[in-house]
Amino acid sequence: MKLKSRKTLNAIILAMVVGAFYFLWVFLRPVEIVAVHQDGNYSYVLVKNFPLTEKGKIHWWLMNKDMLKQRYDIPKPASYGAFTIEFWDFADGYLEEGKYDRLCFTDMKPSVNCIEKNQEFTVGKGLDNDIYFGV
After folding, report:
1. Contacts of 123 (CB under 8 A, 6+ apart)
2. What does 71-125 look like in DSSP terms, one character per residue?
3. What is the pLDDT of residue 10?
């Protein structure tokens, strides 16, 4: 009987260790920016491995907004100062428009110029000059 309970305990410990490594891997992966599309003062950033939590998304933005401005020249405010940046999950890559409700980019040639609508995060600046986050 002792041997059976010992094997069960070892299996539980192994499962916990594997779970802990998976948890760390998910939360510590770097965000990958795949593409940026522009439409006026709207920017669409296609990402992989975006943070899972609201706090993580806001923290990522605060730590990387200068890099986004340098590398991708976003945000691009309108003449009155407002802008919107939307971060979209790029897990499935570019797809055809098909019969589905997908987000398609006009700055690319069809037919493979759409993505699944899985929005991760939004950052914007309104007419009142306040920054807002949508998570």
Report:
1. 61, 65, 75, 84, 85, 87, 131, 132, 133, 134
2. HH------TTS-EEEEEEE-TT-SEE-TTS-EEE-TTS-SSEEEEE--EEEEEEE
3. 84
Averaged pLDDT, groups of 10, the chain, 135 residues long: 76 85 74 94 96 93 96 94 96 86 89 92 94 92
Domain locations along the chain: 1-29, 31-134
pTM to 2 decimals? 0.82
Do 100 and 117 touch, CB atoms closer than 8 A? no
In which residue are the tokens 């993580």 written? Answer: 56
User: How long, in residues, is the chain?
Assistant: 135
What pLDDT score was predicted for residue 26? 66
The two structure tokens encoding residue 18: 């594997």
